[in-house]
Write a structure and sequence with these properties.
This protein is α/β, with parallel strands linked by helices. Helix 3 links the parallel strand 1 and strand 2. The longest helix has 19 residues.
Length: about 230
């Protein structure tokens, strides 16, 4: 809404399997950067000459970072912004599975199972955790050897030093599901325009502040966008 209010063209994309109208083919996986490449190709076809700032939230942010760190970055991609993105998938899944997050994880897994098994015709009752879902659904669907190999091969963490586009990674120290310690340990580029901005409060994709119409991350996005577009 904020970017539309600023007069920008906005294209919204859901992760595979998360389309509320059921048009996408699931399940997702955390490294499906070719989906983003396809989207950027269509944007370039329909709006020639447009520069794109890819903005991703949570796992969508992970995908945007993966694309910016890949060896084949599409030409229209000008910059990347991520908000509350996991960097190490195994680390994030462990945190989500912690006792304090049990209610959230159960709801998340129930939603994932409804999205997937409504189309597949299976109940998914034996799936109790996010790791279970990844192991029993994501891994076989996409041909990974096992869930650990999936997490290890698709995590953006080892690739961050190779970011090829200006990047702003926003995260909160008090995010209950994505470890802030991963942002401090990440191999951010020693040179080049990449910034990891950690603030003390914001939760997971929250960043609300008294007196602001939009979440605080909108102000950060606007400042970054203006810097990239000058």
């Amino acid at each position: 809404g904020a970017m539309l209010a600023d007069g920008h063209l906005v294209v919204r994309a859901n992760l595979r399997g998360a389309d509320p109208e059921g048009r996408s083919v699931g399940p997702y996986h955390a490294g499906l950067v070719d989906d983003l490449r396809t989207l950027l190709t269509r944007i370039e076809r329909d709006w020639p000459g447009r520069q794109v700032i890819a903005t991703g939230f949570s796992l969508g942010g992970h995908l945007a970072l993966r694309l910016a760190a890949s060896s084949a970055v599409p030409e229209p991609l000008r910059a990347v912004i991520s908000v509350s993105a996991p960097l190490d998938l195994a680390s994030a899944v462990r945190r989500i599975g912690a006792a304090r997050n049990r209610i959230y994880e159960r709801r998340l897994v129930a939603w994932l199972c409804r999205q997937h098994f409504a189309a597949e015709g299976g109940p998914g009752k034996e799936i109790r955790s996010l790791r279970d879902f990844d192991s029993r659904v994501v891994v076989p669907a996409h041909g990974f050897h096992d869930v650990d190999q999936y997490y290890r091969s698709q995590s953006v963490m080892p690739a961050l030093s190779a970011l090829r586009r200006p990047t702003l990674a926003l995260h909160a120290e008090d995010d209950p599901w994505i470890p802030a310690a991963d942002y401090k340990a990440a191999p951010w580029p020693a040179r080049g325009p990449a910034w990891a901005l950690l603030i003390s409060g914001g939760g997971h994709v929250g960043f609300h502040a008294r007196g602001l119409r939009w979440p605080w991350y909108i102000a950060a996005m606007r400042a970054f966008r203006d810097a990239m577009c000058t």
